[in-house]
UniProtKB/TrEMBL annotation, chain A:
The keyword Transmembrane helix applies. It comes from Solibacillus merdavium. The keyword Transmembrane helix applies. PROSITE patterns: COX1 (PS50855), COX1_CUB (PS00077). Coiled coil: none annotated. Signal peptide: none annotated. Residues 9-522 form the Cytochrome oxidase subunit I profile domain. Its main location: membrane. CDD domains: Ubiquinol_Oxidase_I. This is Cytochrome ubiquinol oxidase subunit I. It is a multi-pass membrane protein.
From TrEMBL, chain B:
It is a multi-pass membrane protein. It holds the Pfam family COX3. CDD domains: Ubiquinol_oxidase_III. This is Cytochrome (Ubi)quinol oxidase subunit III. Residues 1-206 form the Heme-copper oxidase subunit III family profile domain. It comes from Solibacillus merdavium. The chain crosses the membrane at residues 28-51, 71-91, 103-121, 141-165, 185-205. The keyword Transmembrane applies.
Amino acid sequence: MSSVTQKKGFGAHVWDYLTTVDHKKIAIMYLAAGTLFFAIAGFEALLMRIQLMFPESTFISAGLFNELLTMHGTTMLFLAATPIIFAFMNAIVPLQIGARDVAFPFLNSLGFWLFFIGAVFLHLSFFLGGAPDAGWTSYASLSLYSPGHGIDFYILGLQISGAGTLISGINFIVTIITMRAPGMTFMRMPLFTWTTLVSSSLILFAFPPLTGGLFLMLVDRMFGANFFDHTMGGNTIIWEHLFWIFGHPEVYILVLPAFGLFSEIIPVFARKRLFGYSSMVFATILIGFLGFMVWAHHMFTVGLGATANAIFAVATMAIAVPTGMKVFNWILTIWGGSIKVTVPMLYALGFIPSFVAGGVTGVMQATAPLDYQLHDSYFIVAHFHYVIVGGIVTALFGSAHFYWPIMFNRALNPKLGVLTFWIFFIGFHLTFFVQHFLGLMGMPRRVFTYMGGQGWDLFNFISSIGAIMMGIGVIILVIDVLLSIKSEPVNRRDYWGDGRSLEWAIETPLPFYNFKQTPLVRGFDPYWIEKEEGNKEGMVYAEPLGEIHMPNNSILPFIMSIGTMIAAFGALYSPWGDQVQAGTATGAPAVVSLALIIGGLGLTIACMIIRSFKDDLGFHVTVAEIESIEADLANYRATGKKGGNK
Amino acid sequence: MDINQKFTPQTWPKHPEQATLEGKNKLVGLWIFLASDTVLFASVFATYIALKDSGPAGMEFAARDLYELPLAFIMTMLLLTSSLTSVYAMYHMKNYNYSGVRTWMGITVLLGLGFLCLEIYEFYHYVHIGFGYTQSAFSSAFFTLVGMHGLHVVIGLVWITGLIIRNSSRGLNLYNAPKFFAASLYWHFIDVVWVFIFTVVYLMGVLG
């Protein structure tokens, strides 16, 4: 194995990223892909807000508006928020538990490529006859009769990327269970690791209903099955149940890691141990559990009956209790601390009131009778954007500043960071605060235009101005990221000076094997303990310097993902599809469709068989190689020069 | 881990499938995957229960007349026995007896194949009498639920056959022991799901 600092050509770099199984590189790919889709979905939102800026605007058509709102929601949840959270999980969790990599590095790569290929497939719909247009929930009563291939792209794209998410979820659970360093007991794990564990467990139980539901929709639309077609005995409510059994936990899948990230940021900058650690862990688990008990609160108006509505209403309100515990714990962590208001801390301070506002409107909607008024109005839009932007996006932006030194050995500019924060934060509240009132005034969501003179004009205008401000904020953040490439490398451990957990105990840039020797964890906040005892080495170690066993790179995950994409095209152009037979969509001859399905899946299965038949035992890094790599890195940190060990 | 390390029944670890970190990861991962697969089956079971016997107006097929318990009973016995034989294979694996593993895993595959043939016959029979996949919501739900289990059986058969072929000449080591164990665990899962299918689809279909 050559040194990490060796110079390589561009092609070699591409090949390296296509085949890599290193959790740090996969994290960077997740971050880049997630940011790309975040930008696309944000652009879609801007188009919608420009259309709604003035009454009876003709900027975009009704059909395009439906496509934009569907793709905005779907992309933001599945293809932007999830991968960026996975980026931080991949980059940080193995370091926080003192592991060399995740439990299944091959599956980690496969999870990424399935997600990415599924996302690309979904976005190809824009060029191949129109995007999905039935909303991100894609209710069967609407989507079964949507002409063209849009919904088919939605089904197949989410099926592929959902498989990737599930694989990554299983991977994180196993990693956290089996790969913890000596002394890292469950009740010493940092909160971000805990929330990753709970959120991955939610993925584990929430994604199969989505997979099942999508499969039913797939065979319904493309192969003539009758699950949701009432004339053939089907029942469209089945889709709504399956979707929300997935859809509600999905919210917690995203927000729990965000809670975890803030639970890392706040103690560092309050320079105080996290208040109520064990109650934080308990609350996380409780939220995860209750998250599965509340899906029908999205269906209060479907007509499930008063008993069902009452049960789900009470269960929904119960979630406010553990969430409230968390909010008080954060406040009490800050209370009496020696606070440093850095950019990540600024996001944390902005997060608490914004998220509480979103939570309170959530409890309002949990009241089933009131929900009959609020349902499908802009109040709902305001609520979930307060939770998602106020809770998740602030966490992602804050953590980007927080963890940038570990991930890239560079720091983001604090001045630009503060500027981004204020523009984005003010824009966010301008956009969504007034939408509460629009909803109460009766403006329905998902409408492409409205008549003037109903008292909606001003608030819609303010909302659009806010959206443009959020866009400017994101552009400044992107400029900040681009500028950081040329900035001074960090080249040290503990960039913020007050790091508490293991990821800060390791000097950047990181060698590919992370810790030279597995660290010994002596308590909660292990790095803080070592610093208090004056340990200049960073950590004490659990083992002598020895050979390190690392996994081999592989191109197979990429090829397997391409195989699923080929098969997806086969299913998409199936000649048995409802819309193909109705003449609104193009189909391929049966032979072509079947050949693509069998060929694509065959390629994937062939890769699996190759993987199974070829022993992959990984490789060993010898002590001499480790010493040479460490010397190289030390030289780089001292002089800024790469190489020396070819 | 040295793949060429030679063992005797005396030096072979008591739990060879968990003797390495890779093996332990594999088993924890598979258990967790099975948990999520259970939820997938639960979703499809719920859909089947909701759509049982429902179809277009005047549909002539009802679960009560459609299913034949003797066939389902034979299929159940084949699959339950195949689970037992895979336990025998694991017993021999723990005793470092590779030919025992190979033989009993082979028998497991044969029994699984028998099950699969009967299932294909059953499906063919239903399609033949007009109860095709697109005939009604009931037929779609039936073929999806039972067919999904059948697909799991096919994957299990390919998996175990692949393991037997790949390791036919090299015997047991700490690299392939977890693989055999994982395949056997998966096979038990298929068996458990079938017990529920037999109860919910066939018994409750004929009784209710």
